[in-house]
Amino acid sequence: MTLVEQDGRPHGPSRGDRSVVDWSAAAQIAGRLARPGPQASRAELADLVEGLRTAAGKAVPHVLDVTRMTPVAGTPETLGTVHVVDRPRWARANTEIMASLTTGVTEALVGESGRVPQATALVGAAQVGSVLAVLSSRVLGQFDPYSGQAAAGAGPGRLVLVAPNVLQVERALDLRPADFRLWVCLHEQTHALQFAAAPWLADHLRTRAGDLLTELSASSRRLAEARLRDKLVAVGRAVLHAVRGEGTTLLDGLLTPEEQDRLADVTAVMALLEGHADVAMDAVGPRTVRTVRSIRRKFDARRDGEGSSGLDVVLRRLLGMDAKIAQYRDGAAFVRAVEKDVGRDGFNAVWASPENLPTAREIADARAWVRRVHG
């Protein structure tokens, strides 16, 4: 299964960046460790790739209709280029995104004049590459506003669809392929529209995430300089909290209260984006996706870990997958509550400016957001 090359390929970042991670090596490691996915004939693969590209195109007018949003520049057809990829290519492409989002982290760790030893950069590459390889089997699609042309300000971004994962889920849940592929694309094209309707959003998220990562890097530096016993206690406590479900991710056990607050605000924006996309993908109704209710029921059961092994549950917590699932639900509840109060057009005020984005407290209290934004 290979990338459809019509719009170009997502590649990993080039070697030679001054960074705590050798991103070129991370891309190679991620690509090598990613599992290939389910077996399929050449004809099945061709049908899958074409079906996903067709679904991505069909999803755009439905998303525009149900969200009542409009791209600020260009035409609806330019929400983003579409790439259908296998797992290794998804993993490699995400090293490019991570490299873009971690600019400035090196200075926080070693200072402006410091140097990162090659061995350190390779250890970072091994860690990042290994995690991306695991995640590559769990992601159905992703809209990337940061890499390639989008990063240079020359395009809206790219939609990446992970073909083997779509095939695996539709087989495992016994879903109607055309319906499921369109349903997935409705979610991802909603993300594309979010960034097209709010062109400030990508830079806002990059800045907030970059500031947080810089702070976390400083904390990591302090941890690295601590005594071995203190390191083991801190990391062990973090792992224990994550496995028990007492924190949303492994990071929760390592953050200061101030860092937790900043992370909560970034997470609130991600909850908004994911919840809004989830609401949109269901709002089209059975006229567009005939089996949408059945898909949602089966998919939610899968998200809840039905049939998962104990190891898989632990892995999901350590990698933050349970936190991601909570984002979908919390964000969707916020969107529905706001729309019930002020309607869909009233909800769309959220895309007007960074000041209109919900805080962590408002995600859990939609009326507070309505009072602040609408008076």
TrEMBL record:
Coiled-coil parts of chain: none
UniProt protein name: Coenzyme F420 biosynthesis-associated protein
Gene3D superfamilies with a match to the protein in the record: Zincin-like metallopeptidase, N-terminal domain
A Pfam family assignment: Zincin_2
InterPro entries: CHP03883_F420-assoc, Zinicin_2, Zinicin_2_N
Domain of life: Bacteria
